[in-house]
Amino acid sequence: MSDAWRAELEAGIDALALDIDAAVADRLLAYHALLVKWNRAYNLTSVRDPAQMIHRHLIDSLAIVPFINDSDLLDVGTGPGLPGMILALVRPDQSIALLDSNGKKTRFLTQVKLDLGVDNVTVVHNRLESWQPQRRFGQITSRAFATLDEMVAKSLHLLAPAGHFLAMKGRYPQDELDALPAGVACDAVHSLNVPGTSGARHLVQLSIREV
Q1: Is the pTM here over 0.85, yes or no?
Q2: Burial class (CB within 10 angstroms; exposed 0-12, middle 13-18, buried 19+) of 60
Q3: What are 97-151's pLDDT values in tens digits?
Q4: Are 139 and 69 in contact (CB under 8 A)?
Q5: Domain that holds residue 193
Q6: Which strands sit side by side in the sheet containing 96-100, from one edge to the other?
Q7: Number of structural domains in the chain
Q8: Residues contacting residue 203 through CB under 8 Å, at least 6 positions apart
Q9: Distance (Å, rounded) from C-alpha 170 to C-alpha 190?
Q10: DSSP state of 194
Q11: Helix, strand, coil % (nearest 5) of the chain?
C-alpha cells in the first residue's frame, strides 16, 4: 500500500471536511488495491493510473457523502462500485445495493464484499429496468450512468415514496434538466469541489411530484 496514495486520500478527505477515521481510510485503500489489481485483467475502469484512481474514483465518490441520508440506497450502473461501494465503506450501518448488468464488475464487487467484509452491501447482477426486488429505496444514486430522464424512467419503480435520485454529472446538465418529463422535480444542483481533479462536477437531486 503506497504511502503516497494514503497521503493523497487523506488530503482529499481533509479538503472535503469529512469525518473519516484511519480505520475507514484503510478500508478505502484496501478497495483501491483490489481495484488496481482486478483492473489489470478485467478492464473495470478506463483509469489505469493508481494515483488517478484515488482522485477520480475514491475522492470523487466521497464528495457526495454530505448529501446522502440514512435511508436504504441503490447505486445503479455502479460499475466497480462508484460511488456505491465507497459510500458503503464510509457508512457501514447503511443498507446499500449495487446494481450492474456487467458480470465482470459484479464479480469484482462480490470479491470486495467478501475480502473486506462489507456486510451492508448487496450486489445485484441484473438489468435495471427488469429488476423487481421486494423493497424500494429512499435514494438512488448514479455516476456517469445515463441521462437524467433515462435514469428516472428505468429506475422509477425502485424509488420509495418521498425518495429522491442523486445523479453525479460533470458540467451543469442544463439540456438534461430541460428534457425531464412533467412530474419530475429538480430539487437542487450542487456544485462539487473535488480535490485533485479538473473540470466541473455537479450532483443533481431529483424527486417525483406525481407518479
Answers
A1: yes
A2: buried
A3: 999 999 999 999 999 999 999 999 999 999 999 999 999 999 999 998 899 999 9
A4: yes
A5: 3-208
A6: 121-125, 96-100, 73-76, 137-143, 159-169, 202-208, 184-191
A7: 1
A8: 63, 64, 67, 166, 167, 168, 169, 189, 190, 192
A9: 11
A10: -
A11: 45, 20, 35
Which is it for the CA torsion 181, 100, 192, 46, positive or negative?
Answer: negative
Cell 469529512 -> residue: 18
DSSP, res 180: P
Give all strands (DSSP E) within 49-133, no chain letters: 73-76, 96-100, 121-125
Buried-exposed string 196-210: b where 16+ CB fall within 10 A, e elsewhere: bbeeebebbbbebee
Peptide bond into 195 cis (omega under 30): no
**Among candidates 138, 145, 150, 136, which has minimal Cα distance to 180?**
150
Cα distance between residue 130 and residue 158, in whole Å: 10
Q: What is the CATH number of the domain that holds 92?
A: 3.40.50.150
Q: Residues with Cβ < 8 Å from 21, sequence gap 6 or more?
A: none
